[in-house]
TrEMBL record:
Source organism per UniProt: Microbulbifer okhotskensis
Name by which UniProt lists this protein: ABC transporter ATP-binding protein
PROSITE patterns, per database record: ABC_TRANSPORTER_1, ABC_TRANSPORTER_2
Any one cellular-component term (Gene Ontology): transmembrane transporter complex
Record-linked CDD domains: ABC_MJ0796_LolCDE_FtsE (cd03255)
């Protein structure tokens, strides 16, 4: 297998409220390799979303080491984490998370607007139009998200996640708000992206979709304990 694009060791996450302390993750060790398609499953409350948030630098761990492409990121400030997140990670959520006030075109342009190195307008415009073309949505560029079907919104969310050519695509229940036909189409799109080289990590409750991955990780409350298909964590 190729080199790991991310590596976690002893990742722990504790949520503290006035009433209680919740150990969402205890000592997770995990490596994800370039070009892999990893799916994460497990019972409700076992820490899947917490793990995905830490993988995507939306949240920081309480303890442990986390490296993305060799850079330690577990102790970054929030603004440093945001910069790396914007350049290295793409997200696809169950609820699409598109901005209703912006057109489809402006939604997918967002990740390119916050780059440390600005991309010339002509170059980004060409890329955005090519991406819309690829998912058959060129004719909807000036529509608002709420003028699209659920399946179309998820296709736009996938484009938005990919325009910045992230090292890692994190996907949280991508078919949760779709009927089975649209769900299958979205999963086929993700499978194709992975075949084309995109590294994917997906949380899903659907065993059919989990089985499309090259590696299945099972979280058993409250930490990763077994990996039925391949190497142990
Ligand atoms: N912000 C928070 N504050 C306090 N506790 C939290 C917070 N976020 C998550 N938790 C707790 O951490 C644990 C793991 O939650 P998480 O959302 O990661 O589970 P999950 O496996 O994604 O669940 P589901 O499949 O139901 O979405 C749960 O016990 C949850 O109550």
């Amino acid at each position: 297998m190729s080199k790991p694009i991310l590596h976690m060791a002893g990742i722990t996450k504790v949520f503290n409220t006035e009433e209680m302390e919740t150990h969402a993750l205890r000592g997770v060790d995990l490596s994800i390799y370039l070009g892999e398609f990893v799916s994460i499953c497990g019972p409700s409350g076992c820490g899947k979303s917490t793990l995905l948030s830490i993988l995507g630098l939306l949240d920081l761990p309480t303890a442990g080491s986390y490296q993305i492409e060799g850079t330690e990121v577990a102790q970054l400030s929030l603004s440093e984490a945001a910069t790396i997140r914007n350049e290295k990670v793409g997200f696809i959520f169950q609820s699409f998370n598109l901005i209703d006030e912006l057109s489809v075109y402006d939604n997918i342009a967002l990740p390119l607007r916050y780059r440390r190195q600005p991309i010339p307008h002509a170059e980004s415009d060409k890329k955005l139009k090519e991406c819309l073309e690829k998912v058959g949505m060129s004719h909807r560029a000036s529509h608002k998200p709420n003028q699209l079907s659920g399946g179309q919104q998820q296709r736009i969310a996938i484009v938005r996640a990919l325009v910045g050519t992230p090292s890692l695509l994190l996907v949280d229940e991508p078919t949760g708000n779709l009927d089975s036909r649209n769900g299958d189409a979205v999963m086929e799109m993700l499978r194709q992206l992975n075949s084309d080289g995109t590294t994917l990590c997906m949380v899903t409750h659907d065993p059919r979709y989990a089985d499309m991955a090259s590696r299945l990780l099972h979280i058993s409350t409250p930490q990763l304990v077994k990996e039925p298909h391949e190497t142990a964590l």
